[in-house]
Amino acid sequence: MNEEKPNSRNIPLPIQREVRQRCGFGCVICGMPLYEYEHMEEWALVKRHVSDEITLLCDQHHREKTNGFLPKQIVTEANINPYNLREGVSKPYLLHFSGSEAVVEIGGNTFSCADQGYGTAMVPISVDGTPLIGLILADGHFLLNLVIFDEFNIPLLHIKNNQLVYKPNAWDIQLVGTTLTVREDHRKILIEIQFCPPNKVIINRGRFLKNGIEILVRPKNILITNNASVISGCSAINCYGGLIIGYHEKPISGFFAMNGISRYLGSNKEALKFEKESMHQNKL
């Protein structure tokens, strides 16, 4: 149990993270990924931040508890057995994207497409036939699809046609404002996604993994550590494929395609060194 004597109502960040992990990164009652921190023992009375006494509630359930419609006992029981941990997956959350144009920025590279009729689609990143990021435009709707795997090909986060779901077994998942951050460990970001409705998505930091392929995303470039390829400042407009890696049963043309590529087996130290040197040379 983590406890700090506070100078204010602001909960220290380590305690916030401990509460998120224990509650499955969502409202303990309904699993909603948009939530608030709730002191089950009224803070005004105890004036302390104890992780075991804090839970997560969505705005609706927080207001219901505050107004007396949601009994404290129900919150306490849900805190012991949170929705997301009980279900093994978060409650789907609908992202509000729409329009006839779509833009995805990944590490300073831009992928965009306009609706050219029913079934317009674009795949900014695909590995071995699995689209890690995909866009569909149809009838004024912009549908975002994205999947984040860990090193063992286990999906941790999935956006399917604008519906966001995630598994609560990640180290940390946090949705603050319009930015979703998934962390592998302390200060180790797996993916950071900024949603910019109605039609834009920005990924400035992340690590896409699939079948031994590692794609690192920085604010100004994409690095494929398997072969030390650095991609920076590129644009793909109305192209079906963007960064296409590995074998695809149905061939996809892309602005950057790699069919034969060695799989990640060891350290990415040399690739990171190459990235640093090449980015330094570009500044000269």
Give a structural overview.
With 284 residues, the protein is α+β, with helices and mostly antiparallel strands. 18% of the residues lie in helices and 42% in strands. The strands form 4 sheets. Strands 6, 7, 13, 14, 15, 16, 17, 18, 19 and 20 form a 10-stranded mixed beta sheet that branches. Strands 5-12-11-10-9-8-21-22 form an 8-stranded mixed beta sheet, with no helix packed on it. A two-stranded antiparallel sheet has the order 1-3. Strand 16 and strand 17 form a beta hairpin. The longest helix has 15 residues. It is globular and about 60 Å long. The chain starts with a strand and ends with a helix.
Which descriptors apply to this entry?
globular, 22 strands, alpha+beta, 10-stranded mixed β-sheet, 8-stranded mixed β-sheet, 284 residues
